[in-house]
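[audit] Reproducing an earlier prediction to check determinism. Same input, same settings, fresh worker. If the tokens differ from the archived copy the diff job will pick it up downstream; this log only records the rerun itself.
[audit] input (79 residues):
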Amino acid sequence: MTLEDFNFLDEINQIDLIISSVCIGGRDSGIFKVLLFHVQNFYVEVFFNKQERYITKFVAFDGTDRLEPYLEKLNFAFN
């Protein structure tokens, strides 16, 4: 599955693919809870409206620029 293939899927199939993937991060952005999933060879942000309690959109990407907000929360402990 490529990023382009994902973008052409209908919402139901996108959700099926996302829930079978790994959630690797989360963040708050105003009224949204944004969850980050690693889906095969790309990432998907799921924007969940906390007030209305529904998913508003998916943003799929394959670069690393959009990962910046999640990197702050990572804690690497080396002993």
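[audit] rerun output stored. Observation attached for the diff report: The first helix runs from residue 3 to 8.
[audit] end
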